Amino acid sequence: VRTGLPEHEARAAIASAARLTSGRGGGDAGGAAA
Question: Which end of the chain is more exposed for a tag (fewer CB within 10 A), N or C?
């Protein structure tokens, strides 16, 4: 998958989305899993 972003930025975006989706409490765990 080509995102046009450095890998660490893509991971950060994924982690950010995971935090938003999982809501309160699960955000940090979701970010760590990603």
Answer: N
